[in-house]
Each structure stands twice: as C-alpha cells, then as structure tokens.
Amino acid sequence: HLKNSFAPYFKIGTAINIEQQLDKRRGEFTELISSQFNSLVAENAMKWDALNPEPNVYNFALSDKLIDFATERKMEVVGHVLFWHNQTPEWLFKDTNGKQVSKDLLIKRMRHHIRVLNKRYGEKIHAWDVVNEALNEDGSLRDSPWKQILGEDWVQQAFKIAQEELPPKTKLIYNDYNLHNRNKLMGLLELLHSMQANSIRIDAIGIQAHWALDYPSHKNLEFLINTLHKNKVQIHFSELDIDVLPRPKQFDGGAEITESHKYNMFIDPYKEGLPTSMQNQLANRYQGLFKVFLKHADKIDRVNFWGLTDEFSWKNQWPVANRTNHPLLFDRDGKAKAAFYSIIK
Ligand code: XIL
C-alpha cells in the first residue's frame, strides 16, 4: 500500500471528486482511497464557486462528506483553495450595484469566507492552499481581479488574512504550476522573500506537478527542491499526474493553447488502452520521480496525486477535451498499473 510504503518519508494523498468517488459508486472506491492514501483534497468542492456561488449561500454538502470521510479514517485533509482567479464566482468582485468591489469590501469578504470555513472545519483541515497560481510564466504577477482590486501585494495581503484568521497550527501553502521554470521560480522567490521580510507566515510551497513523460528533468526538479528548501519552506507535490498524450512543445513554457495547437493535439492515440511499452514508460517515469522524492524526503511533506483513477482524471479534458489519458497509478477499472508497482516498496 502506498501510504505504508511512504509513511516514514512523506504523506501520500489524492484529490477526490466527491460526487463520483464517495457517493455514486461508493463501495467501489472507498476501500481503495482509505487503504492507499493518508491525505485527501477535494478536487473541486472547496473552491469558492462550489462553496459560495451566490452571496450568503453556502453549499457544504460535498465538502462535509469529504471531511467526515477523512476524519473517520484519521486521514489528513488539505483545503483547496482559498484565493484563485478560476472557479471563483463573479459576484465576489462586484458590489451591490454591479460595479467593481472596493478594496475594503473585498478584504471583508475574504476574511468572512475564511471565518465561515474555519468555524465549520477548524483544525480538521491540516493545511490550506491560500493562494493558487498568482504568477505568470515570466515570474511577474498575473493580472487578475485580485491584483486589480487589492494591488501588487495582494498575495501578501491574502496570507496575512489567512494567518490572522486560521489556527496557528494550520499550514499556509502557496500553490502553483511550472515552478521548475527558472523565471517563474525567481518570481516565487521574490514573493517569498517579501513575505518573510515582513513576518507574514508562509509555511509551504505546493508544486502542482502536472507533468509529462519528458519534463521536468530530474536535474530541474532537484534544483527546485533544493532552492525551496534553502528558502525555508516545506514542499508539497500537490497535484501530481503524468500526461501521456501528445502536446505542443510551447505548452511546457505555459503558453496559451491556440486553435492550431488544438488541431494538432486532437488525436486520441490510446483510446483502447495504454500499450505495454507506454505502460512501462509511465512506470519508469514514476519510478524516477519517486527516487528523487525519496532522496529529498526530509524536505517534502506530502505527495498528492491529482485524481484517483484514470477515468476521473481532469487530464481527459485538459488541455484538450474528450481524450483518453492515462496519467495516474490506477486504471479505469481501479486496478493498479505498472506505474503503481514501480514505486511501491
Ligand atoms: C481542476 C479540476 O481537476 C477539474 O475537475 C476542474 O474542472 C478544473 O480544475 N490546478 C489546480 C486545480 O489548482 O484546482 C485544477 O483542478 C487543476 C489545475
């Protein structure tokens, strides 16, 4: 079992789509989840638009289900996510007249949101992704309503509010993708240093780890791990999956996917299943990555897969919709793949 294999080193988690894995086909997945993992994230249910789609309307049904499931089984829960530019309702950035909300009111709403969640879940949530994806690929701050309304130091403000409102024990995470790219990493370090210089707590960096068979290299990955460690933050691999489908090269640098890319990518070569040679490539890739993780285990708090089985992976829909991807350790029948056996000890 994964969780036993890695217990001496780091927590091992997965992202759960609660409607699918804890409800509809309940018995089929609960055993797999609780036998293999000791940490859980809601894939969508704790995002702002899912929790609070309209002013004063909170939907807790799904997130309650996840928290109860985890608590009963003594699994850790990581909250995903407080402040992000996606899956965030439009009303949040508007005042009651439909104009852009003032800075003061937005800060009030942020504080209120954390208070509501903290009152309900408190220390049942071990760590929160406080801010998600605030950086551009060149390391600058992404343009978003958060930045427009709160200003250039919006990430710092967000962590300050989280620090003030959440229990001191709750770990505060900054989460992002493509952090192995040097420019983005430099931008992250700038952010980190400005928080550390101002005594704003930031405990960990979540490296999303939506990767492929050929990137990032072990060298770049180790550079990233060592750099973050030197800068005094814990490391979470927060959203690990390995895309096995064709993609445009430009995409690795985080470029937008254009229509022509989509055309080139609209092939679905492994619809009938992943051939053995590819299964082995995926297994080797996972084995190599876990060797790196184990080498640096003292720096790593958690390795979390983004999804349970290939059937439910968001990678079937992204960056191009309706393809058949095979990015995880369990196949469409919930059976362990070669990749699973390549990392288990
Ligand atoms: C994805 C989910 O997996 C999808 O189901 C949803 O449609 C879109 O969001 N980075 C993140 C995650 O931080 O929240 C995203 O999750 C994947 C990229």
From TrEMBL:
Keywords tagged on the record: Carbohydrate metabolism, Glycosidase, Hydrolase, Polysaccharide degradation, Xylan degradation
GO molecular-function terms, A-Z: endo-1,4-beta-xylanase activity
Domain of life of the organism encoding this protein: Bacteria
PROSITE patterns listed in its UniProt record: GH10_2
Coiled-coil segments on the chain, per record: none
E.C. number(s) listed in UniProt: 3.2.1.8
One Pfam family of this chain: Glyco_hydro_10
Residues in GH10 domain copies: 1-345
InterPro entries in the record: GH, GH10, GH10_dom
Catalytic reactions of this protein: Endohydrolysis of (1->4)-beta-D-xylosidic linkages in xylans
Family, as annotated: Belongs to the glycosyl hydrolase 10 (cellulase F) family.
Protein name, entry field: Beta-xylanase
